[in-house]
Design goal:
Largest sheet: 7 strands, mixed
Radius of gyration: 23 Å
GO molecular function: transaminase activity
Family: Belongs to the class-II pyridoxal-phosphate-dependent aminotransferase family.
Helix content: 40-55%
Pfam families: Aminotran_1_2
Cofactor: pyridoxal 5'-phosphate
Number of strands: 14
Distance between the termini: 35 Å
Strand content: 5-15%
Strand order of the largest sheet: 4-10-9-8-7-5-6
Number of helices: 16
Order of helices and strands: HHEEEHHEHEHEHEHEHEEHHHHEHEEEHH
Pathway: Lipid metabolism
Length: 434
């Protein structure tokens, strides 16, 4: 068989749905245009946008835009050239690392080019084949891929049930027994905020288990950094257990509204990572405008708590409003707001409902279906930000109340409810012609 033939005939579990209802560019790879924020344009229609992780509204904050523009003018996008180990280091890279470390109460930090590859590479660097990883069952794909790298080195790993301390303790016992044979150590991995469910990781309870077991704790706090805790330093600060987190990771792609990431830990651990993280050793340094821009964003997080207060005002209004109307939003205690709808109509009903949300109501939010959620469930993932208004929340609550009644009454299982298919087809045809 030709290698590419199997690719053409099978686009994989996600790609296999790309031709369903002309979904490419509509349900997958959509093109939102206009200024980043709560109101954007989709196929020429104005949308109330609930799909951006721009938690603090920094993406288009005037001070941030000014700092980004000045940094690009001052430095260009090339500087510094080369990997930091060889020729790409600078005082400003190290200054940002110190600021980040201080903010999350760690000795030192290391800038990373991207969050996904950063997590993978950090995990791969921290453990060898003698060590055991114990991880939460709902960890993000980047963590799973990091564990796969550990597996490739013949390392063992155990999975504990999501936020289940009894399950974690069972697996810690297994891991403890195993490392007595191998001479290795144990790395427990969890998240601050789980990005799909919005649940907060039980970090305080995990840290408490250190009194009984010898392990180190790695926390991916991508959705908690900037949003959780008294100062925005994350879920560890929220629970008062930041000292018990041995390796703290976050990306700049959420609250910071940028590109890049960092990992923070004891100074000797960070020094080890600087010389052993392959994704950074063999990659060009983070460009200077992104470094300067990150400094400005961190300054905004520290100096403008009103941004976080506005975020949480919107979160409380949205989530309390949904619960009062009988919606199931799971156990979220973070800004991530999953709206779980019972659905007997399968993918047909799910796509029809999302089309009507966009075409008739002007609301754009992410949709999650099987296999991420059970077949009988549609999940609308709503991300409130500080840039949204209470009017945005009120309108969305009204619309959601309408669509859930239609879903219950089987409206979206019709072949072509209210001409929505034609609307979506027109949009996709226009996209193909561009």
């Amino acid at each position: 068989m030709d290698l590419f033939e199997k690719l053409r005939s099978n686009l994989g579990p996600i790609g296999s749905n790309s031709k369903l209802f002309n979904g490419h560019h509509y349900f997958a790879f959509p093109k939102l245009t206009g200024e980043l924020g709560p109101h954007m344009t989709f196929f020429g229609k104005k949308m109330l946008n609930w799909s951006l992780n721009n938690y603090l509204g920094l993406a288009n904050h005037p001070e941030v835009r000014e700092a980004d523009a000045k940094a690009a003018a001052d430095w260009g996008l090339a500087y510094p050239m080369g990997a930091r180990l060889m020729s790409g280091n600078s005082d400003m890279h190290e200054e940002l690392e110190q600021q980040l470390a201080q903010f999350v109460s760690k000795q030192d930090a290391f800038l990373l080019n991207f969050g996904y590859q950063g997590v993978m590479s950090a995990i791969e660097s921290l453990v060898d084949r003698r060590d055991i990883i114990v991880y939460d069952a709902e960890c993000h794909a980047c963590i799973i891929d990091g564990i796969r790298l550990h597996k490739a080195k013949m390392g063992d790993y155990y999975k504990f049930n999501h936020n289940d301390m009894a399950s974690l303790e069972t697996n810690l016992k297994r891991a403890t027994k195993k490392v007595e044979e191998t001479g290795g150590g144990i790395l427990v991995i969890s998240e601050g905020v789980f990005g799909m469910s919005g649940k907060v990781g039980s970090l305080d309870k995990i840290v408490a288990l250190k009194e009984k077991y010898n392990f180190r704790l790695f926390v991916d706090d991508a959705h908690g950094f900037g949003t959780m805790g008294a100062t925005g330093a994350g879920v560890g600060e929220h629970f008062g257990c930041q000292d018990g987190i041995d390796v703290y990771f976050s990306t700049f792609a959420k609250s910071m509204a940028s590109i890049g990431a960092f990992v923070a830990a004891d100074a000797d651990v960070i020094m080890y990572l600087k010389y052993n993280m392959r994704s950074q050793i063999y990659a060009k340094a983070l460009p200077m405008p992104l470094v300067v821009g990150a400094m400005k964003r961190l300054e905004m997080i520290k100096k403008h708590p009103e941004l976080r207060e506005k975020l949480w005002e919107n979160v409380r209004a949205l989530q309390s409003g949904l619960r009062e109307r009988g919606f199931d939003i799971g156990e979220t205690t973070s800004p991530v707001t999953p709206v779980l709808l019972q659905n007997d109509g399968g993918i047909v009903a799910a796509t029809a409902m999302v089309r009507e949300l966009r075409e008739s109501y002007g609301i754009f939010c992410s949709i999650v279906t099987y296999p991420v959620v059970p077949k009988e469930v549609i999940m609308l993932r709503v991300i409130p930000t500080a840039a949204h208004s209470l009017d945005d929340v009120a309108y969305t609550l009204t619309v959601f109340s309408e669509i859930v009644e239609k879903l219950k009454n089987g409206y979206y299982t019709q072949q072509n409810p209210a001409g929505v298919d034609e609307l979506a087809q027109t949009a996709v045809t226009e996209s193909a012609a561009e």
